[in-house]
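## Example record

The block below lists the input lines for one assembly entry, exactly as stored, with component labels intact.
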Amino acid sequence: MSSSQAIEALREAFTRLPGIGPKSAQRMAYHLLERDRNAAQSIADALQHALDTIKHCRRCNNLSETELCSLCASPKRKHGLLCVVETPADLESIEMAGSYNGCYFVLMGAISPLDGIGPDNLGVDRLLKVIDEFDIEEIIIATNLTAEGETTAEFLTELLSGRDITLSRIARGVPVGGELEYIDRNTVARAINDRQTLNKP
Amino acid sequence: MSSSQAIEALREAFTRLPGIGPKSAQRMAYHLLERDRNAAQSIADALQHALDTIKHCRRCNNLSETELCSLCASPKRKHGLLCVVETPADLESIEMAGSYNGCYFVLMGAISPLDGIGPDNLGVDRLLKVIDEFDIEEIIIATNLTAEGETTAEFLTELLSGRDITLSRIARGVPVGGELEYIDRNTVARAINDRQTLNKP
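Predicted structure tokens for the full assembly:
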């Protein structure tokens, strides 16, 4: 191996990014050192700054620089309505959709026995505390429609169904713009079963 | 946008990596901050260390922590034989092949008028200096077989052909393991034209 230890260490570090293998990591390392040292400095600084400042929001458990994130602190949101999601990216996705005006709770994962993630590894204790403290009236379970997400949804349904809270699950069906011909059978079956009535005869 | 400024800045910074768009950058930022802060710290540290220590080798122009890189400093290499490549990754590729025991010169690019890269932007001055200083006897031009690499090879051939140096170009042909049926016509034509004699009748 001809390259220096510092390049080797950088390449190694880049392979720890999700979806980045040894070849891409090498290309990144060389690109930054050969052609864009400014970018390298920006990334190093942004990482360090994020590591130093990003904690979890006391209420929704999302990543936040402040004790209470901007969503939880906003007076414009319905604070009695809670949407439970797996990750910050899922939250972001719902925010982008722009049709939800309640608050969130981010589990930071889903139940996955294969990966050794049980209910205790998710923020379930904190979720229960938030439900009590903030007088939650309705909870939308918006975990993913994967095996892990569905297991998590079932677990939460069981956990919370004794309480005086409206529980709901996000709708399952054919995606907007989807063509039935190309949609998997389970989704089509779900779309038929969960059909929405259009009139009241 | 609900996420914090620090996450936003990190996401932005990651898009400056080659081949990384906004979606991947977001996934990287969330992955590191949610699940692998150790990796985030490793990357930040490795970047900073590389930025602080990596310069160019005085002789071969490759990235190096030392004034003379380990290859140029090695007594095992033939110092009168020079292989000219475009990038450190190309050098690496030849080293991996393990059949070359001379030294290198890394141009850090190729002539590309569309990108505004002319001979002056490559290390051509330094190449000439190295040729004089180290008494080079043979130069293998190993720029890529792309339009830019071929232009660069032609330029170097013209530049150096007046001197008492053996010049050569890497062989063009069908890659090892390649099947003629699936190889492009130019390569096949080249493989026919540059055929190697097997006997001496």
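Chain A touches chain B through 58 residues (CB under 8 Å). The domain at 56-169 of chain A is CATH 3.40.1360.10 (Dna Topoisomerase Vi A Subunit; Chain: A, domain 2).
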